[in-house]
């Protein structure tokens, strides 16, 4: 990501315009199911995004709301493209970063939950998927038309956790020697 500071004003507006162009190009590739091309285009957009410095909460306040919103959307879109390529870890990383840019974006939480569910089952992954889907349901931006999908995904994660589909197989005890 670019180290440049995009403060309120002309620079931020110019960056948003560039992001919107790249997002549109990436969306065309994604809709054509050309996920690798979509990832490449969204990655060009991600490289333009200002860094979010964990130690500097002030950096978020210097960014315009529209820039934060578009950054989250682009990361969510790249997350979806990674899921199309069955790259759950990369999809999860983008979804989590999208939450950092805009925690009100329901798709950021949703895609995080889906990425956890796409991974090999593990206890902590189901727990985190549940937390992601619950966070999705709390987002005021969640459309009513998507609520049932989120509830079903939450129920699937809860089922996977409850039924022990996350349990690791016990190692073979055949070669254990008592001392």
From TrEMBL:
<keyword id="KW-0802">TPR repeat</keyword>
<dbReference type="InterPro" id="IPR047150">
    <property type="entry name" value="SGT"/>
</dbReference>
<keyword id="KW-0677">Repeat</keyword>
<dbReference type="InterPro" id="IPR011990">
    <property type="entry name" value="TPR-like_helical_dom_sf"/>
</dbReference>
<dbReference type="InterPro" id="IPR019734">
    <property type="entry name" value="TPR_rpt"/>
</dbReference>
<dbReference type="GO" id="GO:0006620">
    <property type="term" value="P:post-translational protein targeting to endoplasmic reticulum membrane"/>
</dbReference>
<dbReference type="GO" id="GO:0016020">
    <property type="term" value="C:membrane"/>
</dbReference>
<dbReference type="Pfam" id="PF07719">
    <property type="entry name" value="TPR_2"/>
</dbReference>
<dbReference type="GO" id="GO:0072380">
    <property type="term" value="C:TRC complex"/>
</dbReference>
<protein>
    <submittedName>
        <fullName>Uncharacterized protein</fullName>
    </submittedName>
</protein>
<dbReference type="GO" id="GO:0060090">
    <property type="term" value="F:molecular adaptor activity"/>
</dbReference>
<dbReference type="InterPro" id="IPR013105">
    <property type="entry name" value="TPR_2"/>
</dbReference>
<feature type="repeat" description="TPR">
    <location>
        <begin position="19"/>
        <end position="52"/>
    </location>
</feature>
């Amino acid at each position: 990501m670019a180290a440049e500071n995009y403060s309120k004003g002309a620079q931020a507006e110019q960056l948003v315009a560039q992001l919107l162009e790249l997002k549109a190009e990436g969306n065309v590739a994604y809709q054509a199911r050309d996920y690798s091309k979509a990832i490449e285009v969204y990655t060009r957009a991600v490289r333009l995004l200002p860094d979010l410095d964990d130690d500097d909460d002030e950096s978020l306040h210097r960014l315009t709301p529209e820039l934060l919103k578009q950054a989250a959307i682009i990361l969510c879109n790249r997350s979806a493209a990674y899921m199309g390529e069955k790259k759950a870890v990369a999809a999860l990383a983008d979804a989590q970063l999208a939450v950092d840019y805009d925690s009100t974006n329901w798709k950021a939480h949703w895609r995080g939950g889906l990425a956890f569910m796409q991974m090999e089952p593990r206890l902590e992954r189901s727990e985190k998927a549940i937390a992601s889907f619950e966070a999705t349901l709390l987002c005021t931006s969640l459309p009513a038309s998507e609520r049932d999908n989120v509830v079903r995904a939450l129920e699937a994660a809860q089922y996977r956790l409850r039924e022990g589909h996350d349990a690791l197989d016990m190692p073979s005890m055949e070669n254990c020697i008592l001392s």
